Amino acid sequence: MQKLDPNKWIDKYSDYLFKYTLARVSDYELSKDIVQDTFFSALKSAKNFEGKASERTWLVSILKRKIIDYYRKINSKKGKAEVRMNFYNDGDNDGDWLEERVPQTWDNMAEKQLENKELQNQINSCIDKLPEKYAMVFKMRTIQEIDTEVICNELEITSSNLWVIIHRARTQLRRCLEDNWFNK
User: Fold this and answer.
1) 96 three-state secondary structure
2) DSSP 3-state assignment of 40?
3) Could you say which of 1, 10, 14, 28 is the most buried, measured as most Cβ atoms within 10 Å of its Cβ?
4) Of 130, 136, 133, 102, whose CA–CA distance to 116 is shortest?
5) What's the whole-number average pLDDT of the chain?
């Protein structure tokens, strides 16, 4: 059975939790605040830790709730999305892609990085053009990989409604990317 060691949390987990958060909320200062709030909440609820999961897994579960809480607070505002875009399969650069469309690989690493940043900016721009609810559901499910049931409970929607929203968001994103990136 695992035991908590709060004195080592910052050294062991702060970098991971910060990067995890930053990839989901796209704001450096906000990410630091959410991680700090996560540690504080973990300290307050340490007595509830049953030792069935590792410290890190337990902290990440608290962090996920904090991120969901953040998105619930901005439900009426449009949030930024940090889409980790990388379509290269070379170790440290491994990443996720929204759809099956993947450009051919390039030989020059500088060109790869520039192209990747430009594509990331275009994806962010396309996400910003989505209707607010579409953008929020898309980010929560596709980018943050939050479970369907959690999203449905948090946003008070049915699972079939969630999947309709995801489908429509992806269709609009695909069209936006085709118009503004692939066919330019």
Assistant:
1) strand
2) helix
3) 14
4) 102
5) 76
Query: Start-end ranges of CATH 1.10.1740 in the chain?
Result: 6-73
Report the share of the chain in percent with pLDDT over 70.
Answer: 74
- Alpha-carbon Rg for the chain in angstroms: 18
Write down the residue that tokens 């059975």 correspond to: 1
Cα separations (Å) of 40 from 22, 60, 117? 18, 13, 35
pLDDT in tens, 72-114: 777 544 433 333 333 344 444 444 443 334 444 444 555 555 5
**CATH 3.40.50 corresponds to the domain 6-73:** no
Q: With contact defined as beta carbons under 8 Å apart, do 175 and 127 qualify?
A: no
Pick from 82, 88, 81, 117: which is nearest to 102 by CA?
Answer: 88
